[in-house]
What we know:
With about 100 residues, the protein is mainly β. The chain is built from no helices and 8 strands. The protein has strands spanning about 25-30, 35-40, 45-50, 55-60, 65-70, 75-80, 80-85, 95-100. The strands form 2 sheets. The protein has a 4-stranded antiparallel β-sheet, with no helix packed on it. The radius of gyration is 23 Å and the shape is elongated.
Amino acid sequence: LTPQATPLPQPTGTPAPSPTPITGVIVDARVTDRTWLQVWVDGKSVLAENVPAGQNKSFTGDQSIKMRVGNAGGLDVTVNGVPQGKLGSNGQVLDASWDVGRT
């Protein structure tokens, strides 16, 4: 008699989790140099202050987020998980906005 090899059970794969879809707009701001920051979420003012370097701010809106920045070079922005980099140059004042479907 020749012994027969017993097949080993094959491991079953665990399906990779699907990413959670982002609804709305999420803006994460990392302040690298002191800046004035004013923010509106869905048309409502939620922040208006000088923000020191080293702080992180996060804003979540159903429809839109608008920022007025007093030092665009001092703010690194990520929108819906996608890094955008600095909004502008040091000392530059600018307005930026992100809307659902146009991030």
